[in-house]
């Protein structure tokens, strides 16, 4: 007797319709930076969930679904895996589109701020509004604000590890990890890829650290991922997404 479809434990509980909420495709060009960021995070969350579906079957995107002699495997749910893979491919394309619009929006935003600052400086350098000076002066917005938004926190550091030698401490928040930032870290998966690709090479890690009085210090640390340092992994620290 066959198993009813409703009782199939491999039936997905994830949405399988359009990747955007509401059913109709969203016009990304009309979304604000905040809305684009929210869309980016939503897509990344769904990609993570779909990856877990594949993992539950013991497969990934490139795992073969046929036996050595070309027959369909009977130990996995091929239909479910194919559906999940198709969804992942579609979401990855959506993510690329969102990132392109987000990067353009940020570029335009800062270009407009720079033009406003230049115009204000030309007409009355001494009378630049405080709000404009705060947004554009000494790169405060790009260094510590929107472009430098922390995306991960150092949860723990093993003594004597590469992370420890670089100066990382528990409680540090990460703004940039070898070129990975809040816009492209994809739930820290890009951090892991960067580490794997750069064994023995120096990575610049931009962090923010608060002292006992609540003052924040910005630091650029040089971290060299490596194996065989005496512990697990290539860093010796545990990062958690914010």
From TrEMBL:
Family, similarity comment: Belongs to the proteasome subunit p27 family.
Domain PDZ: residue ranges: 110-211
Q: Where are the transmembrane segments?
A: none
In what ranges is there compositional bias, type Low complexity?
11-25
- Identify this protein by name: Probable 26S proteasome regulatory subunit p27
Region feature Disordered, mapped onto this chain: 1-28
InterPro entries, per this entry?
Nas2_N (IPR040815), PDZ (IPR001478), PDZ_6 (IPR041489), PDZ_sf (IPR036034), PSMD9 (IPR035269)
Q: Can you supply one Gene Ontology CC term for this chain's record?
A: cytoplasm
User: Which UniProt keyword terms apply here?
Assistant: Chaperone
Is-annotated flag, keyword DNA-binding? no
What are the BP-aspect GO terms?
proteasome regulatory particle assembly
């Amino acid at each position: 007797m066959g198993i009813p479809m409703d009782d199939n434990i491999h039936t997905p509980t994830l949405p399988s319709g359009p990747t955007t909420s509401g059913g109709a495709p969203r016009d990304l060009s009309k979304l604000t930076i905040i809305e684009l960021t929210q869309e980016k995070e939503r897509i990344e969350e769904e990609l993570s969930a779909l990856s877990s579906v594949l993992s539950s079957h013991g497969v990934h995107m490139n795992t073969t679904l046929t036996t050595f002699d070309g027959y369909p495997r009977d130990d996995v749910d091929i239909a479910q895996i194919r559906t999940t893979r198709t969804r992942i491919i579609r979401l990855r394309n959506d993510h690329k589109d969102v990132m392109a619009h987000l990067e353009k929006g940020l570029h335009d935003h800062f270009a407009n701020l720079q033009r406003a600052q230049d115009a204000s400086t030309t007409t009355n350098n001494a009378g630049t509004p405080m709000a404009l000076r705060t947004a554009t002066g000494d790169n405060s917005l790009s260094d510590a604000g929107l472009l430098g938004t922390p995306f991960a926190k150092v949860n723990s550091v093993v003594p004597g590890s590469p992370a420890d030698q670089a100066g990382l401490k528990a409680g540090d928040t990460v703004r940039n990890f070898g070129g990975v930032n809040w816009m492209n870290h994809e739930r820290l998966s890009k951090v892991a890829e960067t580490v794997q690709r750069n064994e023995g090479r120096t990575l610049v890690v931009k962090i923010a650290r608060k002292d006992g009085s609540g003052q924040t210090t910005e630091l650029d640390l040089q971290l060299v991922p490596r194996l065989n340092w005496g512990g697990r992994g290539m860093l010796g620290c545990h990062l958690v997404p914010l």
